[in-house]
Amino acid sequence: MTDTTPELGTGVPRREGRDKVAGAARYAAEYAPPGRAHAWPVPAAVAAGSVRSVDDTAALALPGVLAVLTAENTPPLAPADDPVLDVLQNADVPHRGWIVALVVAETLEAARAGAQAVRVSYDTRPHDVTLTRDHPDRYVPENANGGHPAVRERGDAPGAFADAPVRVDAAYDVPPLHNHPMEPHAATAFWADGHLTAHDSSQGGNAVRAALAQVFDLPEERVTVTSAHVGGGFGSKGTPRPHVVLAALAARHTGRPVTLALPRRDLPASVGHRAPTLHRVRLGADSDGRLLSVEHTALTHTSRVKEFVEQAAVPARVMYGSPHSSTVHEVVPLDVATPSWMRAPGEASGMYALEAAMDELAERAGLDPVELRVRNDPADEPDSGRPFSSRHLVECLREGARRFGWQDRDPRPGVRREGPRLTGTGVAAATYPVLVSPCRASATALPDGGYRVRVNATDIGTGARTVLGQIAADALGVPGDRLRVEIGDSDLPRAPLAGGSSGTASWGWAVHEACTTLARRLAGNPEPPSGGLTAEADTTEAVEAGSPYARHAFGAHFAEVRVDTDTGEVRVLRAYSHFAAGRILNARTARSQFLGGMVMGIGMALTERSTLDPAFGGFVERDLAAYHVPVSADVPAPPAIDAGWFDERDPHLNPVGGKGIGEIGIVGMAAAVGNAAHHATGVRFRSLPLTPDKVRAALAGGT
């Protein structure tokens, strides 16, 4: 390896950074083939029912309007595996916001005006959008998201809880949350000689390609999907969404390229959301704080379109050792939009409840909250019994506490007061599973001395191009500027989506294998043939072989908050998190991902919530004026907020040693903030977010 090779772990700048700041990076809605038209959706204005009729006369009379697509004039599509994609196929309206028509026009403005001119008449039916703990339609599904069994039982958790000398029995609520990536969901689609091309804002082009091939009854080789640059997704772009099907339908109908960018106000009803979760956690411990029983029941909602169950009780199967355990998922089907993935689905919601309950247990046991977690750190994964490939949670807690200054904390709540302002500190643990999927990649030595790496990875703003370039350069032993990294095109070697913190581990494994093979072939003859020399890799067999180890990333969050008892405002003054997430491949992008997750967790704790109006039937907070994501004024500036890590060298992962870092930053952060608010005030808050109205009411009631 030469001295100029960018060493893995160093903070190499983003390969695409200059293109992004210069405006050269092209996003899905910015592709403008000749003759491009624009589309605008018409969402259903009722909570449940069916379309009786669509009057498009006024819309078609407007200048520039080309067509209005409805269920009446749209040719049938083949049924999709995901029924969310069965758009404009029948008159049914399963929830408010379901797209019932699409207007296509010469300009974006004309398409929007046309959509506003469409008149839709409905037959309505009674609807229910309210999740309650005693809902008569609640049931236990077979599985939760990710294929996790809905129920896992070990021993006699209720009996052990009843006999435990220290107990916590508490309910916690997390509201619906929305992803709101900076770039809305958008696609530009066109047909040429029976071939469909779609430039889509997606976290995984191969999944979109497969879905389009299915619904349009095409072989996959007649569909190309590109996602060259994606402006965030947070899970909402992890599965194909209706906009890309609608853009392709409009392009086929008009014979022209068509761009459809969903209006932000339509995103909550069209692209998934984090479903609300109502938790009950019961912890029983001995007098020394060692857990005897863990019970976690999570109730959530799903749509009537398809079942999606947030796996919020799964983290309790991983985190702490106990001889008795019960983890249960329940779900209620309602007339709501279909929930889906949002950054750390299951873990983000479930760890808020579990880590808040652990804080309550520490208080009742008279233990420091860090010490309680240390005492209950298991040697093996509790539910499966498998050994951890590596688990440095205790080290994260200890090192995080040292850097945060936890040792100076007065454990008594409500004692740090300056006038009406109270200050407190809190801690919570974090975990996220190691996920890896099969992937293919190729590496080519070019006659000019350069190298080309090709894999259909997707960079959703995380720095995938950069890190894959580092992995390739490291394996080949060449400077990074001699490498060209090609990603974001379904015609490239097949790769999994960017999601589940699995992207770099999956793509990097294949890239490493391809480059290692190429380096071996070049070892005896460093001059490639005139046509270049290519090595290919496919990790399917190795990945599907599985592992006897339980593989997870871990971390610890620390937060200091100030609560204004007059206004009820809670502000985070300091936050520090320490992680054990495998080998950190790029320090710069890793810190960015950790901090981004932490900030999102602060938003979950303090500002973000959505509500479903029981009469209206839809989400009330439909844009960024009503749905409050944290902005710079809401979070402390570095170094008051920071993240650190152990550079784990876990031999049981993959050749590059990465565990994934995109999601663990949010997991547990909301609990750390909530626990800090309790320490500041002495009042326990069990419903997110901690908005001033809730805080003032709780302070007035003293509970």
Explain the layout of strands and helices.
Layout: H1 17-22, E1 37-43, E2 49-55, H2 57-60, E3 65-69, E4 92-93, E5 99-105, H3 108-117, E6 119-124, E7 143-144, E8 148-149, E9 151-154, H4 157-163, E10 166-174, E11 186-192, E12 195-200, H5 205-215, E13 223-226, H6 242-254, E14 258-261, H7 267-270, E15 277-285, E16 291-302, E17 324-333, H8 347-365, H9 369-375, H10 393-404, E18 416-418, E19 421-433, E20 440-445, E21 451-454, H11 464-476, E22 483-486, H12 503-523, E23 533-538, H13 540-544, E24 552-564, E25 570-580, H14 587-606, E26 641-646, H15 669-681, H16 692-701
Parallel strand pairs: 1-14, 12-13, 16-17, 21-22, 25-26
Antiparallel strand pairs: 1-5, 2-4, 2-6, 3-5, 7-8, 9-17, 10-15, 11-12, 11-14, 15-16, 18-19, 19-24, 20-21, 20-23, 24-25
Helix pairs in contact: 8-9, 8-15, 11-12, 14-15
Explain how this protein is built:
Its EC number is 1.2.99.7. It comes from Streptomyces griseus. Pfam families: Ald_Xan_dh_C (PF01315), MoCoBD_1 (PF02738), MoCoBD_2 (PF20256). With about 700 residues, the protein is of the alpha+beta class. It folds into three domains: about 15-25 and about 435-545, Aldehyde Oxidoreductase, domain 4 (2-Layer Sandwich); about 35-125 and about 180-230 and about 235-270, Aldehyde oxidase/xanthine dehydrogenase, molybdopterin binding domain (Aldehyde Oxidoreductase, domain 4, 2-Layer Sandwich); about 145-175 and about 275-435 and about 550-700, Aldehyde Oxidoreductase, domain 4, CATH 3.30.365.10. Helices cover about 25% and strands about 25% of the residues. The protein contains 16 helices and 26 strands. The strands form six sheets. It has a seven-stranded mixed beta sheet with strand order 3-5-1-14-11-12-13, sandwiched between helices. Strands 9-17-16-15-10 form a five-stranded mixed beta sheet, with helices on both faces. The protein has a five-stranded mixed beta sheet with strand order 18-19-24-25-26, sandwiched between helices. Helix 14 (about 585-605) crosses helix 15.
